[in-house]
Structures are given as C-alpha cells and as structure tokens.
Amino acid sequence: MTEFFLEVRCEEIPARMLRPGTRELAMRMFEELMAHQLTPRTVKTAFTPRRLALTLEGLAEREPDREEQVVGPPKSAAFDAAGKPTQAAIGFARRCGLEVDELEIIRTEKGEYLAAQQKTEGRATSELLAELTPRILAGLNWPKVMRWGDGQGPWVRPIHGIVALLGGRIVDFELFGIASGNLTAGHPWLSPKRFEVSDSTDYGRKMARRRIVVKHDKRQQRILAQMKHLAQAAGGRVVEDQRLLDKLASICEIPGVVEGQFDPDYLSLPREVLVTSLRDHQSAFGVESRGKLLPRFLTVMDRADDPDGRVRAGNEWVVAARLEDARFFYQEDRRRPLAERAADLEQLTFHARLGSYAEKTERLVQLGGMICDSLGQTDHADRVAEAAGLLKMDLTTEMVKEFTSLQGVMGGVYAREEGAPDVIWQAIYDQYLPGSTDDPIPQGPVGQIVGLADRIDSLVGIFGLGLKPTSSKDPFGLRRAAQGVVRIALEGNLGIDLDLVAAKAFQLYGDRLELPGKEILESWRPFLFDRVRYLLGLEGYAYDEIEAAVAVGGTNLPDVKARVAAIHTVRGEAGFLPVVLSAKRIANILKDGTEESVRKEILVESAEQDLYDAFQTLREGTEEAEARGDFVSCLRQIAGFADVLDRFFVEVLVMDENLELRNNRLALLRSIQRVLSRTAELTRLVVDKGEYRDD
Fold first, then answer.
1. Are residues 505 and 611 in the same domain?
2. The domain boundary residue, chosen from 155, 182, 209
3. For residue 667, which of 654, 657, 648 has the smallest C-alpha distance?
4. Could you give the CA distance from residue 451 to residue 435 in angstroms, rounded to a whole number?
5. Where does residue 693 rank: exposed (0-12), middle (13-18), buried (19+ CB within 10 A)?
6. How far apart are CA 61 and CA 582, in angstroms?
7. Pair 522, 598 in one domain
C-alpha cells in the first residue's frame, strides 16, 4: 500500500471557488479509482489561493486482475447442421485469442450463446493515475475559466507547476503544457525558489518552514487567535462573522493579521453600516467593547509581519475612503424620510411580469390586513399596515444600492431614526429573517405577519408565472422563502390556514398571473410541506409521524406540529399499536366500499353493538378534545378503543353472506375510519408487528 500526493500550483483562485473545486477533485479521483478497484483508505485535501493539494493513502501498487465473461454469437449461428463451427464461431474465438473448442455454451433468456472467459491483467497504479489525473483536472467544473499564453486551458487560472508522486516516485503526465514532477515553490514573493518534495509529510514540513499553512481550517484557527489577541490588547473583542473568517482564510496562505484604525468620527454612522462597509469593501472585522464599536479593524495580509507598516497604511487609507463614501450615502438618504419615497418604488421593478415594488407594497398592506383578521389580531392591523407600507422603501436608498446585503436593515435603521414606534422599525429591520435555519424569526407579531405576507406574495407570484424552482436552480430564492414561511408560522405560533392566505395573494395579483389559482395551490402546497418535513425532522420527529399528521390535509402549521407531537408522545403507549393495525385493516376492507348510514337496529351481534356504543363515546370525546386542540387526548381515547375493536374483528364476520348485514357493518367501519383519521392518518404510521405481538 502506498500514497499518492498531488499538488497543482497556479495563480490566485477566487476564494468562493476553492472549497468546491478541491472537493470535486477529491470526489472524482476517489470515484474513478474505486471503479478500478483501487479504493484509497483515506482522502485528504488542502488548498490555498495558489494551490490545490490532494493526498490518497492506502493505494495498492496495481489494480487487481479482472476476469469477465464475453458473450458471442448464438449457438444456432455458430454451428451448422452438421455441428461444424461457422465463420461466426471462428471469428469470435479468434477475437478472444482462443480455439473454438475452448469456448463454452451458456444459457440466457434469449437462448444458448457462445461465451469465453477473458482475463485482463491489472495495470500499474502509476500508469492509471497518469491517465486519470490530467483528465480529471481538466474536467473540473469551475464557474469561470480562462485561457493564457498561446491558448493553454481553459482552466480557472494559469497553472505554474504540478507535483504528482506515488510512493515518492513521479507520476508522469502533462496538463496544458506543464509536466508533472516533484518540484514546487513557496510564496511567489517571499519564498519563490523551487524545491523538491518526496511525499505529503515532506511537503507539509517544507511548506511550514516557509510559513505557508496549507490546511484551510488551521489558517482559520491562526487568524482568529491572532485577531482575538489584538482585540483584547485594544480592550475589545472581535465582531463575530464566520463567513468572513472563512473568506479571509481563503485569500492568504501565510496567515498574518494586520490591525488598523480609522477616524472615531465615523462611529457616528450606524453600527450596521460600519460593520458592513468594513466587511464588504475591505474584508475586515470590526472590534467592539461592551456592544459599541471601537475605531479599529482587523484583516489579513499574506505574510507573517508588516515591518515597514505599509500593509497597515494601505488598508487604513482604503478604509477611510470607503467610510467616507458610506457617510455620504447615509447623509444623502437622511435628507428624505422613508414615507416620501413611495413614488420611487413605482420605478423599481419587482418582476417584469408582476409589476413594480409600489404594486407589491399595496398587496402587502391588504394581505397583512387579511392575516390579522384571520388570526383575530385586529388590534395589530394598523401597525401591520404601516410597516407593510414602509417595508420596501429602503430599496430606493443610496446605502442599499451600495450594500445590497443591508436591504431591510437600513429601512429599519432609518425608520428608527425618524422616530417610528419600535414595532414598526423592528418589523422593517427583521423582514428578511430568517435567512437560514440558524437565524431567528422576526420579533413580535407585526414583524412576523408582514414577513409572512411578503414571502407568500412572492411565492404565489412566481409560481403563478410557472417559474417553479428546479432541482439545481432557484433564481428567486423560493426555497428560502418557503422555509421562512414555515418557520415564522411554527415558531410564531400563527395558527392560520396558509392556503387561504395564498388564495388571497392570488386574488390581489388580478390578471397578472398566468396559471389558475387551483393549479398554483396544488404546486405550492407540496413545496411548502417539503420544508415542513425537513424542519420537523430536524426537531427529532420520525418521518411517519410527520406524514400521518400532514396527510390530514390542513395548512395550519402549528396545528400540524401539535398533531405530530401528539403522535410522537402516544405511539409508544399501551393500546396504540393495536388500534393502528386495526386502522390499516379497516382501510384494506373499505377499499371499494360505498357510503351508507349505520342502522343500529340490525347490529345483531353483541360485539358489534358494543362497538357501536363505544364508537359514539369515542366520537363525542375526540370532537371535544380536538376543539380545544388536545390531540394527545384524542389519540389516547383512540388507543382506549382498541380492545372493543379487536373483539369485533374476532367475533364478527364483516363480509357476511347477508348483504344487508355486510353493508351495515361496512358503514360502521367507515364511520369509525373517519374518526380514527381525523387527528392523524394512522395508516401512515409504520408498525413493527413483532413489537405488537410482544406487547
């Protein structure tokens, strides 16, 4: 067993492409080798802006020999009437390097055929790698590629060198005019001299001497440790931002940190503006103390030190210019209150076929009012209308044009500075929450209602144009919007039928949509419940528990979750498994039944009379429990129904020869089925019959 080490050294690759490119390289190499029965024991990757590295440990020196059966012509065509081989048999034997009498006859579904066993000697792993590696490297799916020199490429960036070693020996191949070897180089300015490496361990050791850290996670750790030390020395702490840390570790290979300062006058800008300007324009962290920013920033330099202070001076100069721009945008925006920007929204297109943001705003005001009415929260209606009317105003501001990530946030900041009530500015500020499963939902009912209205308006509009997301593309962010709807409804406990909200949104679009409302609802409902299943699954509920509750059919999501939680609570209790099995049995019996009323007077058997009486009690009890939302009580009452139902199946022949008795018993079972399925579709639950027998 031996190690294959590969390094591709090139010009700087954009940070966002490094991790996906390295992952694809490792995956494709692993899959190709596995197809040749050369599965590596371990796969290790590393990358810096200027190099991709891959180590495959535990490779055999040769691929195994293979023996396979080759099928030739049918026996009927291989031999004539006298049993002598025809040219078809002779030619097949010749291709296989055998005599005709060395061939065998096999039976297949199509009849008897000639066949031969052929052995293929496995190639040396070095030979195989020399063929696979350049093909895989050339075929990596980079978002953008280029050509260089005399037309070499295309690839993400010009390649300067390739190291390819199997057990310390060079694997010979060429890619874009660059021959593989055992020579690499360090930093292009600080340690450009080339040097030999013998394996991955030697490579890591020699890179470390040149202060290059090839592992991305280790660069992150070193950068963060240095930043924390510098921030503490200044009496503060680093403003956390994992995405920025990931980016900084991807734009340097020598993880050095530079500290800079800016004019304290800029601290008069909103915190959000300062942090975003530092992050987006200079890839820099802010420093804070007791929740307030300090006039300092921290970023990386691709070297260990800055002896002349030039890196610091350059960063400070750029930061000052950027913050001055931000101050100008902020001051310009403050000249006009948000409420005076309504006319600007008419010039801003939401979607070419769905109209302007001014029209969207009008829909949001009405949709928010409808949600308030449906929730019985009419006391919030005025605040919801006010927040919805201002929700998209910041899209016309200079600050949001410069920093698109501040959409919503700046509207909230400006509304707050204009003296808007807390519930109004907070609703505007929070409108794009949650953006991920880790984000909180908007604070308070006003923010939650306008956030729900905004997302449902967008979902219905885009679905109404027939622009559903595909498995690989979601240009309008509809999955994120649907997940936001689900989380806001669940965590905000907004017990509203979302189908009714979607139907209202459809109505508000008028004739702009191309699909009928029924078709839109049939598309959006499963799309929505995919998110419900995902989020409830994250909470630990079993898939069949979720399916049993979802199958009841409502889009009141807190109600759905309460049903799931009730199933989860009750399913392990005594009596519940038998009634689930009985529900499945009833469903099988009633597959082709007809609707009829139960006639009590012809319930002749004691067991069916007792079942009928118990059913009346069950129906009344579950109706009362369901009315107060006590689904656990509903299911426990259903579990208590198991004994009398079991007795009925033991003592009564449902499919009696007497048609009148049979239909009456089927009608009774159908009535029972409706009650059993009202809280949850019990037939969706997966039951281990062995577990049932044990009970």
1. no
2. 209
3. 654
4. 11
5. exposed
6. 61
7. no
563 in a domain, yes or no?
A: no
pTM for the whole thing? 0.83
pLDDT in tens, 240-298: 999 999 999 999 999 999 999 999 999 999 999 999 999 999 999 999 999 999 999 99
Q: Are 299 and 315 in contact (CB under 8 A)?
A: yes
Domain that holds residue 385: 340-539
Q: What is the pLDDT of residues 316-363, one digit of tens each?
A: 999 999 999 999 999 999 999 999 999 999 999 999 999 999 999 999
Residue with tokens 């003592």: 651
Nearest to 88 by CA among 107, 69, 73: 73
Among 687, 418, 443, residue whose Cα is nearest residue 578: 687
For residue 545, tell me if it sits in a domain.
no
324 and 351 fall within a common domain: no
DSSP code string of 602-649: G--SHHHHHHHHHHHHHHHHHHHHHHTT-HHHHHHHHHHTHHHHHHHH
Residues 43 and 116 in one domain: no
Dist. CA 513–CA 523, nearest whole Å: 14
In a domain, 562, yes or no: no
Q: Average pLDDT for residues 529-548, to the nearest whole number?
A: 94
How many distinct structural domains can be found in the chain?
5
Output the domain CATH number for residue 664: 1.10.730.10
Closest residue by Cα to residue 58 from 129, 3, 127, 5: 3
State the DSSP H helix or E strand holding residue 410, giving kind and residue range, or none if neither: helix 409-417
- Asked whether residue 558 is assigned to any structural domain, the reply reads no
Distances in Å between the alpha carbon of 591 and those of 178, 406, 595, 645? Answer: 70, 56, 12, 19
Q: Is 37 helix (H, G, I), strand (E, B) or coil?
A: coil
In this structure, are 7 and 153 located in the same domain?
yes
Using alpha carbons, select from 441, 390, 451, 455 the residue that is nearest to residue 416: 390
Residues 606 and 660 in one domain: yes
Q: CA-CA distance, 181 to 173, in Å (whole number)?
A: 9
